[in-house]
Amino acid sequence: MTGTPAAVISLLIFGATYILISVHRIPFLKLDRPSAALIGALLMVVPGIVPFDVALRGSINWETILLLLGMMVVVAYLKLAGFFEFVSTWILLRARTARRLLYLLIAASGLLSALFVNDTICVLFTPVVLAAVLRARLNPVPFLIALVTSANIGSVMSLTGNPQNMLVGMFSRIPYGAFFLVMLPVGAAGLVLDALLLRWIYRHDLDATFDAAGLTLPRVDRSTLVRVLGVVVLISLGFLLPLERWVPRLGADQKLPLVALAGAGLMLLIGGLRPADAFAQVDWGLLVFFAGLFVVIDGINRTGILPALHDRAAPILGPSGAGLTVFTITMSNIVSNVPYVLVVRNWIAGSYEWTLVAMASTFAGNLTIVGSVANMIVLELSKDHAKIGFWQYLRVGVPVTVATTSAGFGILYLIHVLHRI
Question: pLDDT at residue 24 above 60?
Fold first, then answer.
């Protein structure tokens, strides 16, 4: 299908898909984000807007899908070994005061989110943190918000910290090590600001001490843990080394998924656990969400609407990147950060612009209660014990997002001026 009818149909499918993605769930339809993206993709394919063979071979960025899959398998082994429950419980035992607990939680959540996908950290930490603070008779709200904001902030530091950064890595071809060095001060400054702001906002809730009596460190599968940590080290080395120069016919954009899959394969071989148990921990819905969204974006790209939108937005973006940063924050909260990165991938030309997109689309997740998947995970898992409303979250989300984004832009602009990244 071509011409005006195809453009109209594509626009309608695109709009309906993004509405379903943005509201996260429509009760009477029982649809979630992955199913909305899948249906949107099918609606692009069935009338021929995106031919089926093109959808399979050209629309879907399989490098991103495989990178996610590989990292999920490795993280699954860490979870099965008891690593995340051990770390979160150790933090609670070491804290002793509510203020120190807040700081330790922000540090651990932020650093682990830089190594692994931030959504995973929120899934695994929320139940343990919630149970402990309730036992200690502390207000759980500051700690839950600290968990999710720091997970979002810390994930900015690496190309594997969150899904949108993985896309940035695929599209920009910025080396893993170079991205980490540039974004490390951005993430570190963000975590410090997050701690300071939360300490001030919840100052009346954080002066208490608590007794961790009865809380003991959980047992871990040491054999599996040693193996998986060794594989994590190897994966990190693979990300950093110039394998594309050594492996024949390996593209720069293919290195990350190859290394992640190799690490996953090694874990399946030496992990000492049933592979089926690891695969059961994989978020297959997220992979479906990405695949469907790639096809939907390809369909709307064929209409010429997005280039026209870019031409209209270009005058406000400006050479400094400030306009691009504000535009990214805004659009990431309208259509969500992952779809936004997919939309603008053909507009962003240089490494500096890509780092701005990575920073702003990640920090934008802290603005509102529905700003990121990580936010929704924490709220869903804690809904029976802690009620965090839209405005209650917003009073934290606004200052945290404004402060961290401003600092992040300043750091990246300074690096850009001094070193021309």
Answer: no
Q: What is the pLDDT averaged over residues 116-120?
A: 84
> What is the pLDDT at residue 53?
93
- Bridge partner list, 209: 97
Task: Please indicate whether residue 77 or residue 5 has the higher confidence score (pLDDT).
Answer: 77
Per-residue H/E/C for 234-290 = HHHHHHHCCHHHHCCCCCHHHHHHHHHHHHHHHHHHHCCCCHHHHHCCCCHHHHHHH
Q: Give kind and range of the element (H or E) at residue 39.
A: helix 33-45
SS3 content of the chain, % helix, strand, coil (to 5): 75, 0, 25
Compute the distance between CA of residue 50 and CA of residue 133 in angstroms, rounded to an integer: 51
Tokens for 358, please give them. Answer: 């990575």
First CA to last CA distance, the chain: 42
pLDDT tens sequence across 384-415: 788 787 788 899 999 999 999 999 999 999 99
Give the separation between CA 164 and CA 42, rounded to whole angstroms: 23
- Contact 227/272 with Cβ under 8 angstroms? yes
Packed helices 284-301 and 3-23: angle between N→C axes, nearest 10 degrees: 150
- Indicate the residue type of 2: T
pLDDT at 58: 84
DSSP lists the bridge partners of residue 97 as: 209
Q: What is the spatial distance between Cα 278 and Cα 76, in angstroms, rounded to a whole number?
A: 5
Mean pLDDT for the stretch of residues 7-24: 79
What is the distance between the alpha carbons of residues 191 and 409, in angstroms, rounded to a whole number?
15
Task: Show the tokens assigned to 171.
Answer: 């599209």
d(CA 166, CA 160): 6
Q: Are 22 and 335 in contact (CB under 8 A)?
A: yes
CA of residue 180 relative to chain centroid, distance: 15
Which runs of E-coded beta strand occur in 120-271?
A: none
| Confidence tier at 310 by pLDDT (50, 70, 90) | low
